[in-house]
């Protein structure tokens, strides 16, 4: 059994994360991560580590800052007008909770509009959450397993899913 207050707090963090991505609030999104936090999107669900293996994303906060700078540049083609995302996060389940961290799994669907084209991404999130010195939840690890990671795309992912 999971404490209802903890369940609500975790859900609100995941919903906030989706809102920040859809609103293109890149710095606030990055700030949700712990100082040693990692955003990881493996190529296949069978992958168990990113070091020494190809990944779609494997970014610590420094790499996230670099990506933010690239997509925030005024001439960033990937951010041209008519580019939006819409995230839906659901099925949030706390698998374990201890003082060392909280293990969470959830499902997501993201729709991306780029000019007149729409792409759909779906899959599961796995979050390892920790508390910072102020007691706020921070993301130590976010693993994103795309349901359609093997599908061909006409261009690469420019921003976090």
Topology order in helix (H) and strand (E) letters: HHEEHEEEE
- Structure classification: alpha+beta
CATH architecture: Roll
Top-tier CATH class? Alpha Beta
* Rg, nearest Å: 16 Å
Strand content: 35-45%
CATH topology: Nuclear Transport Factor 2, Chain: A
Q: What distance lies between the first and last C-alpha atoms, to the nearest angstrom?
A: 30 Å
Sheet with the most strands, sense and barrel status = 6 strands, mixed
- Looking at the structure, what is the overall shape? globular
Side-by-side strand order of the widest sheet: 2-1-6-5-4-3
Helix content: 10-25%
Number of strands: 6
Low-confidence stretches: none
By DSSP (H or I, 4+ residues per run), the number of helices equals 3
- What number of structural domains do the residues give? 1
Q: Averaging pLDDT over every residue, what do you get?
A: 90
């Amino acid at each position: 059994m999971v404490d209802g207050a903890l369940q609500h707090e975790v859900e609100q963090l995941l919903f906030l994360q989706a809102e920040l991505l859809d609103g293109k609030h890149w710095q606030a999104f990055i700030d949700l991560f712990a100082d040693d936090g990692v955003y990881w999107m493996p190529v296949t669900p069978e992958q168990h580590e990113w070091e020494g293996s190809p990944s779609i994303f494997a970014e610590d906060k420094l790499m996230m800052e670099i990506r933010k700078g690239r997509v925030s540049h005024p001439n960033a083609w990937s951010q041209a007008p008519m580019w939006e995302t819409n995230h839906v996060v659901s099925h949030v389940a706390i698998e374990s909770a201890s003082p060392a961290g909280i293990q969470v799994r959830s499902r997501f669907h993201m729709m991306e509009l780029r000019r007149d084209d729409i792409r759909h991404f779906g899959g599961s999130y796995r979050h390892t959450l920790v508390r910072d010195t102020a007691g706020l939840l921070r993301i130590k690890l976010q693993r994103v397993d795309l349901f359609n990671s093997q599908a061909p795309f006409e261009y690469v992912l420019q921003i976090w899913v």
